[in-house]
Amino acid sequence: MSALIFLSTILIGFILFKLINSMRRPKNFPPGPRFLPWLGNTLQFRKEARAAGGQHVLFEHWSKQYNSQLLGLKLGSEYVVVAMGNAMVREVQLQEVFEGRPDNFFLRLRTMGTRKGITCTDGKLWYEHRNFAMKQMRHVGYGRSQMEGHIEREAEELLNKLAGTHGTPIEPVTKLAESVLNVLWCLIAGKRIASDEDGTLHSLLDLMTRRSKLFDICGGLLAQFPWLRHVAPNKTGYNLIRQLNTELYQFFMTTIEEHRQQLADSEQDTDLIYAYLQAMANKDDESSSFNETQLVMTILDFFIAGSQTTSNTINLALMILAMREDIQKRLLDEIEANCSSNAAGASSSSSGAAAFPHLSRRESFDYMDAFIMEVQRFFHITPITGPRRTLWSTKLGGYDIPRNTTILIGLRSVHLDKEHWGDPLEFRPERFLDTATGKCFKDDYFMPFGLGRRRCLGDALARACIFSFLVRIVQHFHVVLPAGETPSLILQPGITLTPKPYKVMFVKRQ
């Protein structure tokens, strides 16, 4: 009996120790809400984020409440630090200690149960494959004239689709997403995705949209409590994510198998898939990190990095153009002045005859550049970026950050910093124009694609597509709001912020 009492006492003591320890903040950890036993801040975070209208809004509220640019949280058993403000955000993005990625169940679920690809890996695998992928993408035209050629062709296809609407109200986002995705697929797979007739492109876009809605930057409940997939596989989104992963995998593998067959017939180096297949064929040993799964995950990373955020940015730009006739008129004047001066015999009024405004002449489009930058700053569609992982224990802002802490980056807090911008809630492209020269300049507080070696993989594609598509659209169409249509400037929360559905009319310019 006494032995049973002794063992019971030991067990109770152990449970109490673990309970108290789960509530204890690490020494000199950034301030934040109190930890609950076992759960940390998980339930409070999810409840208050929904009430506030998004995680980014809640983080900014807590930053004011605790008077700190760094917040210290605990989500499940995972320590999380949120960096806000220009100084902290810049330091996190540029320091090697913060270049890691968390390794949890949810992030592995993102990459189909693996720790592969580029975006969600770190260390040797990340260095090797990021360098290889970017080298091969440049080889097939990423950021060069070949990419511009793909963009021009897709821009013409987009113009034809918009002309086919005959000025009737439409939601433009799907057509934009199709065009951006096809530019990316030409670089990855050397061809456009199958045409609208067989529905492949629409199915893929729908797949990516449904998938993105299931992910949030903190990983949801599955990151903190992966065992919930056994209890509530549907409610947690686990079953749907697995289904979408399977569909994506099948789509990618169909293209990879086509390339594998063609590679056997002749040497090819015309796209990223061929480059990976050749690297797999030439590997010296079985431990090589070049394999089929790594290829699939790399394709997925480029898809995510280069497609949805780009089309959403263009979508928001069109919404602003429809709402602000003054901005649209000024952009048209700039485009006509630049394009007509380079088109032999073209008058300033014959915008349809003007030459395509090549990216090499982008420096002549100062107001367009300023407008695009203001769209990215004002709407900040990725308000929280990351997540990062501290590779070793370190200091940040005077606080101690333990090894393997997850770091989230509050980019919105930089783009809406009132002290720096003065009127951050006003949409004003002129803030990026030099008052003396009228030239567009890059502000140090403007960082939509991130900084350092972890900056967005798709930044070159995004910048080129956004510029070229908008120039061509404004050049050929008057973007008009239908009667009674009032788009909302308040975006829908998620892993990226998206505009609420709205309709515009594309009226052909004469």
Any idea of the CATH class? Answer: Mainly Alpha
Average residue pLDDT: 85
The number of helical runs is 20
The N- and C-terminal alpha carbons lie at a distance of 97 Å
Structural class: alpha+beta
Count of domain modules: 1
Main sheet characteristics: 4 strands, mixed
Oligomer: single chain
How much beta, percentage-wise?
Answer: 5-15%
- Radius of gyration over all CA atoms, rounded: 25 Å
What coarse outline follows from CA principal-axis ratios? Answer: globular
Commentary on this structure:
This protein has helices at 2-23, 42-52, 55-65, 86-94, 105-110, 123-139, 145-163, 173-189, 200-213, 220-224, 228-231, 238-265, 272-281, 292-306, 308-323, 325-340, 366-379, 411-415, 418-421, 459-476, and strands at residues 70-75, 78-84, 384-389, 394-396, 399-401, 406-410, 477-480, 505-508. It has 510 residues and is of the alpha+beta class. The protein has a single domain, classed as Cytochrome P450 (Cytochrome p450, Orthogonal Bundle). α16 (325-340) runs antiparallel to α17. The longest helix is centred in the middle third of the chain and has 28 residues, at 238-265. The protein starts with a helix and ends with a strand. Its cofactor is heme.
